């Protein structure tokens, strides 16, 4: 589940292509999933910056997002190829996706959580760089993380 939090943020970054409508859709999904799980934007930022993804609400938030964007398979595993391709459609610097896809745990939920934690930290860095380089890149309301 922790992995799903990271994946949610990664996918928000990776799927957000130059088409403003697509970015707005991704950020709307992020906001809707956060609202559904009772998580505010400030808390999402704190969790990302601390790396503490052990809260069930954040795990459910991530699962909601991954499911809504189509990166969760029917058996509950993460479709890393999907994430990788979406990332590549946005930026060439997607090595972190490969790194994160190798993270493991003692069961599928822990493996997903480990990969998600890796992704969310890397996506947060990418989004901060993107925001610094182009303040309008994240669309109306700014970047979600």
Automatic annotation (TrEMBL):
Q: Which GO terms describe its molecular function?
A: odorant binding
Q: Which domain of life is it from?
A: Eukaryota
Keywords from the named record: Signal
From the Swiss-Prot or TrEMBL record, give the protein name. Answer: Uncharacterized protein
Write the signal peptide boundaries.
Answer: 1-16
Q: Known Pfam families for this protein?
A: PBP_GOBP (PF01395)
- InterPro entries per the record? PBP/GOBP (IPR006170), PBP_GOBP_sf (IPR036728)
């Amino acid at each position: 589940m922790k992995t799903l939090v990271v994946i949610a943020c990664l996918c928000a970054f990776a799927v957000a292509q130059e088409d403003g409508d697509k970015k707005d859709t991704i950020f709307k999904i992020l906001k809707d999933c956060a609202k559904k799980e009772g998580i505010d934007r400030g808390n999402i930022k704190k969790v990302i910056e601390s790396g503490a993804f052990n809260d069930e609400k954040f795990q459910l938030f991530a699962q909601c997002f991954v499911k809504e964007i189509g990166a969760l398979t029917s058996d509950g595993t993460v479709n890393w190829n999907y994430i990788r391709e979406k990332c590549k459609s946005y930026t060439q610097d997607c090595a972190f996706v490969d790194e994160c896809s190798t993270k493991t745990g003692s069961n599928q939920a822990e493996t997903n959580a480990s990969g998600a934690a890796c992704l969310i930290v890397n996506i947060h860095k990418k989004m901060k760089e993107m925001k610094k380089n182009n303040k309008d890149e994240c669309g109306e309301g700014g970047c979600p993380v």
